[in-house]
Every structure is written in structure tokens, then in C-alpha cells.
Amino acid sequence: MELYVFNPQLNFLGVIDTFSSLRWRRKYYSTGEMELHCAVTSKNQKILAPENIIARGDAVESGVIEGVTMEDSMDGGETIAVTGRFLSSYFDRRIVHTITNISGTVEAAMRRLVNENCISPTDATRIIPLLELGTLNGFAEQCEFQVSYKNLLTYLENLSTISSIGFRVRADFHRKSLVFETYQGLDRSFLQSDRPRMMFSDEYDNLKSSTYQYNAAAYKNYALVGGEGEGNDRIMVSIGDAQGLDRRELWVDAKSNRADGITDDEYRKILAEAGAVKLAESVIVENMEATIEETVGQGYRTKWDLGDIVSCGKQKWDIAMTVRITEIEEIYENGVQQIVPVLGTPYPDKIEI
Questions:
Q1: Which residues form the Gp28/Gp37-like domain (predicted)?
Q2: How many angstroms separate the CA atoms of 267 and 272, rounded?
């Protein structure tokens, strides 16, 4: 495998064709990450510099170098390790700069937030060079919310989590542009018949190893959301209808959401959306992390891919699930490839409201 290195202006710098290991972790609801280890050479040291971009010919994502470590050891000689996140991590460098009320589709909301804070902001110093909006897909998922002075990447992750719409930034090196894209995985589970089905299971003998996780410690299913006002005059909205021992309550302080210029009904919808986003963080974590057989890996990206809904299970453990592929880690070490998909809910990062 060859890795291509570009500068932030997407000018080609060189090729890395020899390395000891590469970890390429793709994430559906967030920006992915990478880690590369190779020998220290004058060329590698020059091009593997912070802010430069590593691309692969077989991947839609590219990684931004954020960390560099060089080491000299008696056993391994001189090595250089670079770490970073994929191009959508650029959104971590921006906040939502104004009070923004949004009502409509989640896809349009994502595009508006990116456009107003990175592409066409009122302050031209906030423009992210080369960034543009990709094709509008017309995804139907709806939202109504207010956001201000929050980290842009965090809010895109929030919207992705509640809608199951993925997002990424794709580098078009020929046009020298960075394209913001939304996408959705395909349903390839045994619950549908429109396309070929995909099953990860010991019954199908396509798993080398697997780890099943279930954790409900942080699970919440009822939210009381507080908006503007004080004491008995504070505007309150509740989400959820669970009762008795099954009810797990959560308090959401959404006083930062303002009611200026909108109706009471619109404001209550905004508070409800704030509660829904917080509940999206507090889900039951249930997943299988699997190392798959090479024959299954050959269908990677064609028969199954990041964001797809698949069937999976472990017959010996009496576990069967229909889940989304939320993460895929590709590991290349000394010429050996491993693909490790996370099937189901990953442990979430903290979501801000």
C-alpha cells in the first residue's frame, strides 16, 4: 500500500511506500483517526510534518497530521510515529459564532452550520480554505433546535447521532477542494430483501474473534429540560414516557437557548430537541467488536461498509442483533491486514448541550 502526502493547500509532497504499521479508524458519527509508524528518513521527516495530509488511493477519507513522535531505540532503530484525525476534524477548530435557530431537515442543518461558520462566515478570517458543500442528498430526517457558541464538530456529531446521518470531508486533490458530504449506510440486514444480506456470525464461520459488550449504567430515557425563566416561571419541557423502575430521569439545563424572536411553540420544540440530543448520549451501549476472516474482508466496501445496517450474532452466546456498523478499524502491520468493525452502539464521547 502506498500513502500519499499533501500539504494543507492539497499540493503533492511525496509517497510513503514502506511503513511498519498503519491504524486507520473510520467512525460513522464522528471524525476518524489514524496512526502511522515508519522509519526516520530525511524524506519522511520532511513530509510527515504537522498539518500535512495523508491520503490513500483506496479510501474516501484523508488524515491530518496532528502529532509527531520520533524515537531512537536499540531494538527498533529510529522510528517516526504520526497521529491525527480525518479532515472533518477541521470543524473542531470552529464554534457556532451566533445564536442560530434551525428548523427543517438534519442534512440542511448540517450544511447551514458548515456554510455559516466555515465557508461563508460574516468574518472572512474564519473561512476554512478550499472547503465547499457537496451534493444535497435530500435526506428526510427532521430537527428543530437552537445553538450558539458551541463547538461546531460537537454539534455535527450530535446531529449525526440523533439522525443516523453520517458526515465527512472528502479531499478532491485534482480540483484542490475539500468537499463536505453527508451520507447514509444501506440496510443489508436479514430484516430486508431489497439487496444482498450481510451476517457476521460464528454460525457463518466468518469471525476470527469477537467481543460482546452491554452496559446500561449511563442509560436515561426521560429528560426534564429547563429553558428561560426563574423558579416557577421557568419554561419546562419533558421528553419520554417510561414509568416505575424502568424510568431513568435526566435533567437538562438549556437556559442558554433563547426565546427571542420565536413563538412559544417553536421555543418548546427547541428545548425538546435539546433533551433529545442529551438522551442520545445516554443510550444503552450494546455492540460486538469483531476481527473478521479474510474472505469477509474481501467484501469490505462493496458488500458491507461503514454506516451499513447488518445482522450479527454469536450462536454460542445466544446473541443476535440487527445493528449499524458504527466504526471500522483497519490495521496494517508488517504486510498483514486486519479489519475490525464495531457492530452496534459505540461508547459515546461526551455530548454537549
A1: 2-345
A2: 9
Under 8 Å CB-to-CB from 351, ≥6 apart: which residues?
Answer: 154, 157, 158, 161, 277, 278, 280, 281
When pLDDT is averaged across residues 67-77 and rounded to a whole number, the result is: 87
Instruction: Choose among 134, 105, 104: nearest CA to 119.
Output: 134
Model confidence at 185, in pLDDT bands (50, 70, 90)? very high
Cα 303 to Cα 213: distance, rounded to the nearest angstrom: 25
Strands 249-253 and 222-226: parallel
The string over 124-148, giving b where at least 16 C-beta atoms fall within 10 Å of a residue's C-beta and e elsewhere, is: eebebebbbbbeeeebeeebbbbbe
Burial readout 328-345 (b: 16 or more C-beta within 10 A, e: otherwise): bbbbbeeeeeebbbbbbb
DSSP string, 12-74: EEEEE---SEEEEEEESSS--EEEEEEE--HHHHHHS-TT-EEEETT-S-EEEEEEEEEEEET
Cα 156 to chain centroid, rounded: 9
Give CA–CA dist 323/307, Å, rounded.
10
Residue 76 scores a pLDDT above 80: no
- Identify the CATH class of 94-183: alpha beta
Q: Domain residues of the chain, as ranges?
A: 3-86, 94-183, 199-216+284-344, 222-281
How buried is 171 (Cβ within 10 angstroms: 0-12 exposed, 13-18 middle, 19+ buried)?
buried
Q: Distances in Å between the alpha carbon of 199 and those of 27, 77, 203, 301?
A: 20, 43, 9, 15
CA atoms within 13 A on the CB side of 213: 15
Mean pLDDT of 268-280: 93
Q: Which residues lie closer than 8 Å to 284 by C-beta, 6 or more apart?
A: 214, 215, 216, 219, 345
